[in-house]
Amino acid sequence: MSKRVGIIGAGVSGLAAIWCCLEEGLEPTCFERNNDVGGLWKFSDHTEEGRASIYQSEFTNSSKEMMCFPDFPYPDDYPNYRHHGNLQEYIKTFGQKKDLLRYIQFETLVSSIKKCPSFLVTGQWVVVIEKDGKQGSTIFDAVMICSGHHIYPNLPTDSFPGNYLHSQDYKDLEAFKGKRVLVMGLGNSGCDTAVSSAVIISTRSGSWVMSRVWDDGYPWDMVFLRKEPVFNDELPSRILCGTVSIKPSVKAFTETSAVFEDGTMFEAIKSIIFATGYDYSYPFLDETIIKSRNNEVTLFKGIFPPLMEKPTLAVIDSYTLPTTNEMMADYITYMDELGSFIGAKPNIPWLFLTDPHLWDGARNAILTQWNRTVKPTRKRVVSEAQRPHPFYNLLKMLSFPLLLLAVTLTFY
């Protein structure tokens, strides 16, 4: 008899989990609180409690070649960075083509996940659900949590006494047109919100802000194979033109203004948008299973609770990127390591000897990815684009700070 696996959430990770379970001969059942797949990328014009959300104009920060299912690439003419509606369509199409939707119970809320009384022997779990006002429970041999951990908005305790909201509640520009708005936070959400509506951004530590597009129209994450710092194509020009200003942390609020740590003040504020992230939480799990401490969770490789007696519960797609410097660590190395753990990292030379047909397909997919990447931006051929050379581009990126250092030492 096949082992039963409970999967929480039908976003990108949830669909991948269903797919992998079927490939391994397991019996998956996925629970999704909404009426469709997509998870975070399913846009809603209202805020849902216990769920991070996106806004109407949101685009991805990862390019299509770095953010697709391995055997289900995006169409060539799709833009490299996609609007949320475009991505939602891709996710749903993947689920339909792989016949995964029949394993999903929609509009079903998971209220708790508990160890079976016989857990020390069987490693089984009891998943309690709520659907149509009724409660039920099912026993599973393993559980895969694919619902994300961005649950509860992180709002400062000394919030502005006037009108304010968290970026979770921000949906579009209309409500803020012509108003003096302060955005707290310089992450991706803060930057995207700022270029839409704000005149002041308050940041505690600053950040590197870079364009999504690198030389010859190639995406940044393909050229350097890294997870990004903060990407925004409009913010630098807005700052140069003076329509957006950067300030340090807020020292104090008054009824209608904010006083910054440098002593300056932003007055007549109509609203504040707190782009201050979320608190990590798994509300359906007891803290004895996964405990959050200082807004971090302890998981082996960001996946397995290390103190579990039986390794039958995994948190999928939970890898946390703590600081900008740590975020610059090689993303591909991490993915290769995870692939090696499960035997999914291909050995290209060995594949050539054992399965030449599969080797040829893999080779073509790898060698043609650069052409697929620039195709949406090439409406006519002007000159042949050169494939990026990461080492050369890294030297070019570092040349300016090195030149600046040399000039400083010369006049020191």
Automatic annotation (TrEMBL):
Swiss-Prot/TrEMBL keywords: Endoplasmic reticulum, FAD, Flavoprotein, Membrane, Monooxygenase, NADP, Oxidoreductase, Signal, Transmembrane, Transmembrane helix
Localization in the cell: Endoplasmic reticulum membrane
GO molecular function: flavin adenine dinucleotide binding; hypotaurine monooxygenase activity; N,N-dimethylaniline monooxygenase activity; NADP binding; trimethylamine monooxygenase activity
Recorded topology in the membrane: Single-pass membrane protein
SUPFAM superfamilies, sorted: FAD/NAD(P)-binding domain (SSF51905)
Stretch forming the signal peptide: 1-17
Source domain of life: Eukaryota
InterPro entries cross-referenced by the UniProt entry: FAD/NAD-bd_sf, Flavin_mOase, Flavin_mOase-like, FMO-like
Cofactor(s) recorded in Swiss-Prot or TrEMBL: FAD
Name of the protein: Flavin-containing monooxygenase
Species annotation: Cebus imitator
Phylogenetic placement of the source organism: Eukaryota, Metazoa, Chordata, Craniata, Vertebrata
